[in-house]
Each structure stands twice: as C-alpha cells, then as structure tokens.
Write a structure and sequence with these properties.
Helix content is about 15%, strand content about 20%. The protein contains four helices and twelve strands. It has a five-stranded mixed beta sheet. Strands 8-7-9-10-11 form a five-stranded mixed beta sheet. Strand 1 (about 85-90) and strand 2 (about 100-110) form a beta hairpin.
Amino acid sequence: MRMSGVWRVTVATAVLGALGALSAALSACGGTAAGGEAGAQREAGARGEAVRTAAPGPVPSAAADPTRVPGVGDNLYRRIPADSRQVVAVYGDTENSPDSTVVLYTRHGSAWRPVRAWAAHNGRHGWTTGHRMGDGRSPVGVFTLTDAGGVLDDPGAKLPYDHSAESYATPDTWDEAHRHDFDYVIAIDYNRLRGTPPADPTRPEGEDKGGNIWLHLDHGSGTSACVSVSKEAMEFLLRTLDPRLHPVIVMGDRAELRA
C-alpha cells in the first residue's frame, strides 16, 4: 500500500536518569544508566547499524475485513478498547530487529483507515512479550496513549502536554546525535500511572519490569525500548491523537502482531 505524507526518519534512543532532582527518576525507554545507554547508542551509530534513510517498510495490505486493523491478529486486536477510534500500529520488521514502521489508523464507523505511515525504530535488540529493564527490547502489546510532553513548547497537542526543558533534557554526557531525542515525547502506558506527565518515574509493577517507554524523536538507530520517529511525525501525532478518541498503540514484530 502506498501511503501519502511519508517523511524521512532517523531513530531514537532510550533513556535513563534525568538531571538534578530527576536524575534517579527519569528512565525513558527502560534504559540502564545514562552513560551506558549513550555509549551503546554511539557504538551502534559507529557500526552503522539500523540506519533508516527513506520510506517506511511494507505496510500490511487492507484486511479483507475492514473492521480489523491490517496485520493485527486476534490475540492483540481483542485487547483494543471498544471505544478506541485511533490506533498507532508499530510493525517491527522481525523479532530481533530495531527497524519498524509506524502507521496511524482512524476508525470511521466500523472501518479502520490508514492516515499516514513513517519509518521508525524500536528496541535495539528487537521485541519481547516479557520486557525487563535493560533488555534492549520493546514490549509487545496494546497500550493506551494518554500523556505527552517534551523540551519544546506545546506544538498544539490534544493530549495533555507537559512542557519542561529540565524534565526532558538529555544528560550532558550524551553526544550531539541524541540531544534532541526528547524534544517531543508521548508516553506509552506500559508500567506507568496514566494521567501523569511522561517523566513521572512511578512504576506500579516494579522497577524490574522497566518503564518510561515513549514515542520520541529518532536519531537513526535502535532504542533501549522506546519507539522513535521523525520530528515531523511526532508533531503530526501530537496534533492528531485525541483523548476523546481513546488512542492506543499496538506494537510488536510482524509475526507476533499477526498471532
């Protein structure tokens, strides 16, 4: 399927440790430590791993049943809330790949229709159904999208937007390629308190399950667990995702999504 509005993408990273009082609290993307995460990302960039330079990967063709999100099987589709009218689908290339494609779908009546697609990155080690902190894999599943924020001013987000240059600043030890990772973020409601700013460090299911997993800006390689897209894509998603439409993200490698 050929999608309009496809933008060039590079990837983003995962996080841990904020600055100042948040240094022990902010650990986006389920990262390990700020220095270790930045080092891992620099090494990946130096090896030229998983650099996406153009269009997204193949998007599943329209399902025979238009009431279903393409490429999403019963296991995950039945977890999409009945009142959700917006789905961000993340199609990971393979179980162990950091490359993925993000497609925004909206529901019109009973039919799901694609809006836009973008190249993206996920965890640098791929995907898992049992995410643990520091495993470098993104969690497979269906998660609500309720809160946003970032270093930059609110671009017109419909989700509640927490503007804070301090809370979302990357550590000084990170290189230039990663300095803008958290200019915009959308919290993925995995092991977090819905209705709080993305930087809130609370992890209801415990630290070992990781947390602070976000949609954020891409820098060209895999993340610790987050999903990253271009700045243009983030701006579009922030201006489009509407809490009145109960948006969710359905994410995983293509094989797991089809199950």
